[in-house]
Design goal:
alpha+beta, Calcium-transporting ATPase, cytoplasmic transduction domain A, Calcium-transporting ATPase, cytoplasmic domain N, seven-stranded mixed β-sheet, 22 helices, 22 strands, 17% strand, disordered N terminus
Amino acid sequence: MPWNNINSPNTDDPSDTCKYCTTNIYEDKEPENRIKAVYIVGISAIILATALYLDFFTSQKILAEILYVTVVVISGYETVPNGFRALFKGKFSISLLITIAAVGAFSIGQGAEGASVIFLFFIAEFLEDYAGERAKKSIGSLIKLTPQTATVKRDGQNIKLHAHAVDVGEIVVVMPGDKIPLDGIIIKGISSVNQAAITGESIPVTKNEGDTVYAGTINEEGYFELRVTKRSDETVLSKIIDLVKTSQNNKSKTEAFIDKFSNYYTPSILLLAVIVATVPPFVLGLNFDTWFYRALVLLVVSCPCALAISTPVSMVSGITAGTNNGVLIKGGEYVEEMQRIRTIVFDKTGTLTEGKLELTDIIPLKNYSKDRIIEITGSLESKSKHPIAEAVVKYTEKTGIKLLEVTNFKSVTGKGVKGQINNEMFYVGRRNLLTIINEFPDDLIEKLEINGKTVLIIADQERVIGLIGLMDKIRASSQSTIMSLKERNIKTIMLTGDNEGTAKAVSSKIGIDNHYSGLLPEDKVKIINDLILKDKHVAMVGDGVNDAPALARSNVGIAMGSAGSDVAIETADIALMHDNITKISYIIDLSRKTMSVVKQNVSLSIIVKGSFAFFTILGFVSLWMAVAFGDMGLTLVVIINALRIGNNKN
């Protein structure tokens, strides 16, 4: 199938290039830069080893010095110029500290030390860049999931187009093994779809006609056609990509503090180095070369590389781990806040429950059978689109009960429905619909309501002939999730607009600590406000649509089922890409592990740097040791420790 030239993107014009297709930004340049760095390390290592041999085992001192300078030129091609540029701008960068140390070493005849400093610092910078690339790779891997082409049905033909040339409403053909190019609704066919890229589910999901599918997911086996519902820059996957990009710019309080600390730390170290280089020789009369050298070592060993990278590399690792598990976290500040959470508030409908009513009780009265009650109720409710009606009709379909013809049907908003079956009038609904009825089975109705059930009253023109109880199905994982949160010493609260009976029944069944019923959206916000004043750190879990105000007011808003809700992704601080409530416990564990690693990295950096600085002043640390162990080695340890977070699976 040929490309349609009219609708194909102009690759020469950057403005026409889809930002979600430019994987080269994150993928193609990375191996090239890495290969270049490996060459530099290899060549510099050979030259440095040769220079050291000439310097210490032969009389070729001048040649050795030339080779030392060559090492500086090769491995310091960015460090030295950046250091001098910073000096001219009056800024105190890490590159400036290293450059001063190297120049100082050469000036006192320590060319080996000066070359080693530059060479080892280049390796340290390479390690930092590698850690930073993990952030880019988390975006790049997502971008790579985005199919660039789509097979579109136009004028009776299948035409291959660029994904961002396809309009909403067009029909796209998806073959077995294809990546689904755009969000849409299946209009023909059935298949099994791997949604791991969006929801984190490892098990493929069966998709039928009428089901929604998402760009970037994989059609495993069947053929189907979908009607496009969103353009390429509006898909769930594109929103995830934007969110992950944004999350890397939202720093935690710890990150912000470290950044601010570094701004004062570097000039303070420079001042201390000047004192070490001048006070002992000029005030105490000690050897200048010795103390000048120690000052240079102090500059190097005090470089805040490991300290500066300790928090961001840990946060990136935590956020990336979450993304890989179907949890989108909008920034390090929310990773940090989740470890402080002591109260989690849950919306009931669609969060602790599935948001779908199911028929639980059929109580026939006045010589009617259960089947006859369902036959009458199902026939009337089949004419309605209300969620209660859908639950009843679904039950009749499952049990195979045939529906009867209904005439003179009427739906009364907020009350119920009525209509004639075989010329006899029947009513299905609430008590306020049945104004002609004088006697109700109040004890049976009350018993159902106490158990948290919605009651349908079925009546003819004279009396109540039956009752039907319906209940919002509790998620299978709700109870285990609440128990796991209690094990983590977290208080749980449920908010709902339902009546007290329903709220009490659901909360007691799953073990919620407390509940509030009969709430409007503004009531939920007020309760969140009160809880924050009392408990300080409160998270809210909801569906991201009608709970948006409460999600926004809480310290951390967590949206359920974000794969189907744009509002959820935009409103919440953390978005669960699938209706998996067990991820709440995972988020808490991920946050606690991430912050534990952050504390370990920061503490280790401070202890090692402080110890090396102390022993430097006493003369026990050389320049190459300062870089190899106090900088490069420490940076490597910090990075490896941070990467452990990615092993936190759920």
